[in-house]
Write a structure and sequence with these properties.
The chain is an all-alpha fold. The chain has 14 helices and no strands. The chain starts with 7 loop residues before the first helix and ends in a 6-residue tail after the last helix.
């Protein structure tokens, strides 16, 4: 299967660096210190009680995700967490500390073996409930996991939207090495077919329900999906995928 070769039109979907005329480059987008500074600066603008709660969630996530890399790249995984919280705050206008805290913690159950009960104790029932809903490993298969967002509450959809928007931006920026499948970085590839499934999931299982949670988030996710589908190589694979009916991850 072909590896990803995406056109420059997709790269334009990623926010530009502050003060720069050029699209944000992956090294800056995934720079730990830059993204941490941006995220915490945004959190510092929240009311004191909210600021304390979200900062605590971020610090917990930093500890739990310590040492993890994003896919098989060289970039620290925690940068994804910073992106999600920053995206929720700036691009989607979220100020709810429950949503922002859940955004910071959204992968810790799935990726760090953190128990939902521990999250309830540390961060409360509402935060833990959102994180639980974001955790694929708690569902009976990928398809069931994606289907449940159709009836998910607004807070859950906000976090899922931000998560998927950032992941699609990362695929666009990092290209073939963004997400890889295999035993080692040298051997691993991320076929276009799997990226097409990832975009299909966003279009079918998230986008139809996204507008009720955030019009801004809906618009950004919709734009990303349409930009991917404008790429000729991607669109060809996408059509084959739809015809085959194999539209979710194995």
């Amino acid at each position: 299967m072909k590896e990803i070769v995406l056109s420059a039109i997709i790269i334009e979907s990623v926010p530009r660096a502050r003060g720069s005329k050029d699209a944000l480059k992956v090294d800056e987008y995934s720079d730990l210190l830059i993204q941490k500074r941006v995220c915490y600066e945004l959190v510092r603008r929240l009311p004191p009680r909210s600021r304390s709660q979200v900062s605590g969630a971020l610090k917990a996530a930093e500890g739990w995700h310590a040492g993890q890399l994003r896919g098989w790249t060289k970039y620290p995984y925690i940068t994804h967490v910073y992106h999600v919280v920053s995206l929720l705050t700036t691009e989607m206008g979220v100020r709810d500390p429950v949503v922002l805290s859940a955004g910071a913690l959204h992968d810790v159950v799935e990726d760090c073996n953190v128990a939902v009960e521990d999250l309830k104790i540390k961060f409360g029932e509402r935060v833990a409930s959102i994180v639980e809903s974001e955790s694929e490993n708690l569902f009976d298969g990928r398809e069931r996991y994606m289907e449940h967002f159709a009836k998910a509450p607004k807070r859950t959809l906000l976090v899922k939207m931000a998560d998927r928007i950032d992941n699609l931006r990362f695929v666009a920026l990092e290209g073939v090495s963004a997400f890889k499948k295999g035993a080692s970085p040298e051997e691993a590839v991320w076929p276009m077919e799997l990226v097409a499934k990832y975009v299909f999931e966003a279009e079918i299982y998230i986008l139809p329900y996204a507008r009720k949670a955030s019009a801004a988030g809906y618009d950004k996710l919709d734009k990303l999906i349409r930009m991917f589908k404008k790429d000729q190589s991607f669109a060809r694979t996408y059509r084959i995928l739809l015809d085959s009916g194999k539209t979710v991850f194995d």
